[in-house]
């Protein structure tokens, strides 16, 4: 299954995992995910690239980005803490919507090296959050949530530190953009009317477009196409479904429209992409 329709009983899950898989089909979901590598070398596998991770590294998996965390050596299982959460959880944090900036823009690098002070802070907070869950002492949920906020703050500060210009834009993220982005994530393969998004935002069209782009780095339409085409690329690579079926499954009502946007995004046609992807497997 290419899409994991995860049903979280809570808005936050923190798990300790150990695995020695060196190959696995990529999966995707609409939640935000942080992996904190504790031991041995990992391959953070994405659809079109791969990052090598060392103990202490942190990796962000963005919504609808096909991914999997793999061991580099089957004889050396990787150990990591996975933080999985719904975007809606930030409503409980003062100015929390700003902290989601690194998960939505492709300008922020998803790989935070262990040598970074931010990675060290994230690892300490993740360990503490998991320990609270294991001990379950009175009030542990509140303490865990505070550690989770620490994790998000360190991730955000790392993204800000990567580029002065990007950091300035991140500081200007408008609070109203967060629920709009979450709505897009929840309905990405359905018809999405930008006019409804503007109405949800509650302010004028120009204001909406300006502040959405400040938060995400692209316009609402570009963001929607990016997510849909990530899904399409994964389906082209891993299934034998027809290009027409994939187009409709990803939310496109016109094969011509799908082909046009696919080529703009990947610089090749869907047919050419599938051919190259199959040859590489």
TrEMBL record:
Keywords: DNA-binding, Transcription, Transcription regulation. SUPFAM superfamilies: Homeodomain-like (SSF46689), Regulatory protein AraC (SSF51215). The keyword Transcription regulation applies. Residues 178-276 form the HTH araC/xylS-type domain. GO terms for molecular function: DNA-binding transcription factor activity; sequence-specific DNA binding. Pfam families: AraC_binding, HTH_18. The keyword DNA-binding applies. This is AraC-type DNA-binding protein. The lineage of its organism: Bacteria, Bacillati, Bacillota, Bacilli, Bacillales.
